[in-house]
Amino acid sequence: MSALTMDMPQNGNVRSTDTLGNVSEFEECEFSKLLDRPRPLNMERQRSCDERSLSELSIGISPRLFPKNVENSSRLTDHLDSTFSPGRKSGFNTPMSPSGFDPHPMVNEAWEALRHSLVYFRGQPVGTIAALDNSEENLNYDQVFLRDFVPSALAFLMNGEPEIVRNFILKTLRLQSWEKKIDRFQLGEGVMPASFKVLHDPIRNYETLIADFGESAIGRVAPVDSGFWWIILLRAYTKSTGDTSLAELPECQKGMRLILGLCLSEGFDTFPTLLCADGCCMIDRRMGVYGYPIEIQALFFMALRCALLLLKQDDEGKEVVERIVKRLHALSYHMRSYFWLDLKQLNDIYRYKTEEYSHTAVNKFNVIPDSLPEWVFDFMPTRGGYFIGNVSPARMDFRWFCLGNCIAILSSLATPEQSTAIMDLIESRWEELIGEMPVKVCYPAIESHEWRIVTGCDPKNTRWSYHNGGSWPVLLWLLTAACVKTGRPQIARRAIEIAESRLPKDSWPEYYDGKVGRYIGKQARKNQTWSIAGYLVARMMLEDPSHLGMVALEEDKQLKPPLLKRSNSWTL
Asked: How many other C-beta atoms can be found within 10 angstroms of the C-beta atom of residue 568?
């Protein structure tokens, strides 16, 4: 299966093609106009979107979420502004950070490396390359990945450079409109690409854009997380700049509706969570995350909440908003009730009865207590808890996943009490989850016979390597954001200091191997862009906590439904 391509002459004459003979819905020239359109940039970071409760959205809202001008937009209530409103440009010449330590010499080195990774299309920056490691075969590390670009985008936004983020949002939106096929099967219209690549031909004087929607990925799995990250990034851009014009574009509004249409459609599902294949997110290889992985559910929840702030209340958007509100209520209840694990819940599962058939069943998923792994009893502290990796009929994946739990905190999927418990767990299990390089992508590693069955003997995901318990520096920004939101910056500061002692001299690896992350990953690329950007975002957020507003949402009190009372029998 060939990748989709688009030929773009550098003289501005557009010729849109792909190997499937598709004619895109939006002509490239129209998107060029969007890129060139004048727009207000509120560099004083005025309030850009409101954090209204779901009750307000469900009982009636003004016809437009975003007023035409920033002055009117600032009237919208935004609870985050009081504590998390994005502030000044930071990163380069800060003499003393508010957190109490001097800027590290590696900050300038990191910025230089990040700028060196920029990718240009028709003379405009549109993203950052995955890695600049000339010692290894490129494979797909020479592409711009949507999920990988998120920390780069946040770094540029925090440094007062939003233009590249705007370009990236519009370019990936353009790619969404392409026809997408794997073999003879057509993907949904709303699917966002996993990555894209710019090919330059100086002889023919044009640039070709190649996008991958999963047809070139390992296992041929479409990226479920790409659309969620795109919505989250659109909200971060709007929150940071105060520029509501981008989100208000009809193309962006339609793009959000298409993404959400894939997730909110009715079917055979009995749960509000999303059913996914292995390899559909950051863990893009077979690792036993099929079903209802916590990473996807947390990103889904956050994308839904961000979309509520961005979608207009017009004829097309109103119905989507109503469906989002209903889904959020159901999703928050399901995740907080069934995915949450602490000492009490672990003990309850340990004592579960099985084969319960009624509406009052306690063991609703018929989980067999003997399936509890031995390690979880020692791993669970007296104070602490986390969202487990997966819940489905007769199956609970008790592994701890960093990204899903951090996003749960940032999106307020986790209640304040649960957020505190997650941070308590990280502190209590520092050696296991942080060790000598933050942060474990998941814990623990699967090995021996289980590894052979779950991964199919994957040589890259051996125990304590890569996605199987490897340590990923990029996750530092998520950990830091979660620490700042929960009022535990000392945890982030300690983790950043560990990273600073190793990352520059190790040439910014993609990941580390070993039980405590002592060794550079056996197949890790050097100069990995999101390792660089993740450090910068963590550093800037700790220096200026007001940056948290780009990626954090306050708890919505309306998402606390009353306990459900189930009757003992059906009544007709």
From this structure: 7
Helix, strand, coil fractions of the chain, as percent rounded to 5: 40, 10, 45
Cβ contacts of 540-543, under 8 Å, gap ≥ 24: 540/90, 540/91, 540/155, 540/158, 540/159, 541/158, 541/477, 541/480, 541/481, 541/484, 542/97, 542/99, 542/480, 542/484, 542/489, 542/492, 542/493, 542/496, 543/90, 543/94, 543/97, 543/98, 543/99, 543/103
Strand 4-9 and strand 206-212: the pairing is antiparallel
**Residue with the two structure tokens 């009544």:** 571
Is residue 209 scored above 50 in pLDDT? Answer: yes
Let me know: does 187 contact 146? Beta carbons within 8 Å.
no
CA distances from 74 to 77, 78, 308, 458, 555 (A): 8, 9, 17, 52, 21
Could you give the CA distance from residue 108 to residue 115 in angstroms, rounded to a whole number? Answer: 11
Angstrom distance (rounded) from CA 400 to CA 444: 7
Split at pLDDT 50, 70, 90, the class of 216 is confident
- In whole angstroms, give the CA distance from residue 248 to residue 250: 6
Is the Cα dihedral 17, 20, 26, 32 positive or negative?
negative
* Residue-by-residue DSSP string for 7-35: EEETTS--B---TT----SS-HHHHHHHH
Question: How many Å apart are CA 516 and CA 432, to the nearest integer?
Answer: 6
**Neighbour tally for 383: CB within 10 Å:** 12
Contact 50, 78 (CB under 8 A): yes
- State whether residue 238 is helix, strand or coil: helix
Backbone angles phi, psi at 528, to 5 degrees: -75, 120
Residue 217 in contact with residue 279, Cβ under 8 Å? yes
Residue 31: predicted pLDDT: 52
Neighbours of 346 (CB within 10 A): 18
**Could you tell me the two tokens for 265?**
């459609």
AA letter at 436: E
What are the residue ranges of helices labelled H in 123-249? 146-158, 163-176, 224-241, 245-248
Question: Are the CB atoms for 263 and 222 separated by under 8 Å?
Answer: no
* Nearest alpha-carbon partner for 420 in 437, 405, 430, 431: 405
Q: Which amino acid is residue 244, in one-letter code? A: T
Beta strand ranges found along 338-451 (DSSP E)? 340-342, 385-392, 395-401, 442-443
In this structure, what token pair is assigned to residue 167? Answer: 């370009």
Residues in contact with 119: Cβ distance below 8 Å, sequence separation at least 6, in sequence order: 125, 126, 127, 128, 129, 144, 198
Q: pLDDT band at residue 490, thresholds of 50, 70 and 90?
A: very high
Q: Are 298 and 387 in contact (CB under 8 A)?
A: yes
What is the reported pLDDT for 178?
85
The string of pLDDT tens digits covering residues 330-377 is: 999 999 999 999 999 999 999 998 888 878 888 888 899 999 999 999
